[in-house]
Amino acid sequence: xxxxxxxRSLDSTPPLQIEGMVIENQTEMWVSAVRLLVPVTxxxxxxxxxxxxxxxxTTFPETGYAGNPVEITWxxxxxxxxxGQFVMELPDEVDVDRPAMVRIVIxxxxxxxxxxxxxxxx
Length: 122
Prior knowledge:
Blueprint: E1 17-25, E2 31-38, E3 43-50, E4 55-64, E5 70-76, E6 79-86, E7 100-108, E8 111-118
Parallel strand pairs: 1-7
Antiparallel strand pairs: 1-4, 2-3, 2-5, 5-6, 7-8
């Protein structure tokens, strides 16, 4: 679903600064314990409970995006789900001079993806 996008090489650009995350629950069930983990560093960002059709967002100190694999995990309907590890690539239209966010969409039980999106307010 959202795991792939047109991308350019991370090697040819300065590191994009990521400063937040938004998680959208597009399902008709509550989701909880949503976590975006970068396994190679152990760093993660999480949100607690997200009601059906709503979102959770958070900001954090800017961090350079190195292109490391990420994994999304969450709980829904009494089950724990995981995307497994995948790499988010930079979309062609990203301006590396402006901070960006990670957008996670939970589309159904066991179905989620993430993309990097440019902040519109800066």
